[in-house]
Specification:
By secondary structure, this protein is α/β, with parallel strands linked by helices. It has helices at residues 49-58, 106-126, 144-152, 160-177, 194-213, and strands at residues 33-36, 43-46, 65-75, 78-89, 92-100, 136-141, 181-186, 223-225, 228-233. It has a nine-stranded mixed sheet with strand order 1-2-7-6-3-4-5-9-8, with helices on both faces. Residues 12-29, 37-46 have a biased composition (Polar residues).
Length: 243
């Protein structure tokens, strides 16, 4: 799980029109700041730590709320990365865990987790009749940097994470074509958000498992670790149309 290091709280107040392609973190006495980007077809909201936890708690059991987190674990000279997604739906809740075969940076894991949440939403909602689809989904992440880079795409950081962000953007665009808005929200990590804790638990369980057992399962073959279904994938899997 990544806590933002380079983005310090600014003095920006909420404005009537969202700022495009920029991300600001308000201090505890400020209103939420909303960002709407041109490439990413959605909005991002960053609140104060307390407000982010209050908002997250108010949507703990909301249908079509997706909680994402990335995890990195180092063992000797090896680095293991994973992503976790937890989401509610009308039939209950689901967990998805991904061991990232070629992910080596925490940014890779956090961005992949956000993209995996968007992909899960698009595939789930795509199977529904148009009349029953939600008007919006909520996606929660504790990585301000991942959300900001996604809103800035394609002018985001270079390397693999830029490609991961591009695939996440395409899933958001697919949701929009289905008439579903994407609202992303930063939530403080290691706080009181049950949804964030569950996503963190999934991601951390995967990195701990693969650091001990290795990637003994083939790519794309689901397997279970306790109640979590895990799959070993490459970062490019995010661009595949199948789940």
């Amino acid at each position: 799980m990544q806590q933002p290091r380079s983005r310090k709280p600014s003095a920006s107040e909420r404005t009537p029109n969202p700022t495009q392609g920029q991300a600001h973190s308000p201090s505890s006495d400020q209103r939420p700041h909303h960002t709407e980007a041109t490439s990413f077809t959605g909005t991002m909201t960053i609140r104060s730590e307390k407000e982010s936890l209050d908002f997250a708690s108010s949507h703990r059991t909301s249908p079509f709320a997706y909680w994402t987190d990335g995890s990195q674990r180092c063992k000797g000279d090896e680095t293991f990365c994973a992503a976790g997604v937890h989401f509610q739906h009308e039939a209950g809740h689901s967990y998805k865990g991904y061991a990232l075969v070629d992910g080596k940076e925490n940014n890779d894991a956090e961005m992949f987790a956000v993209g995996a949440g968007l992909k899960a939403a698009a595939l789930q909602i795509g199977q529904m009749d148009a009349a029953g689809r939600p008007q919006r989904i909520l996606l929660f992440s504790d990585s301000q940097s991942a959300l900001a880079e996604l809103c800035r795409w394609p002018d985001s950081m270079p390397g693999l994470v830029r490609d991961v962000a591009g695939n996440a953007v395409r899933w958001a665009q697919k949701l929009r074509t289905m008439g579903v808005a994407v609202d992303m929200h930063w939530v403080k990590g290691h706080g009181t958000s049950a949804g964030n804790k569950l996503a963190d638990q999934v991601a951390a369980t995967v990195t701990r498992w693969v650091s001990i057992m290795g990637l003994q399962h083939g790519e794309g073959v689901p397997y279970n670790i306790g109640e979590f279904q895990i799959v070993n994938v490459r970062l490019a899997w995010l661009g595949d149309e199948s789940g």
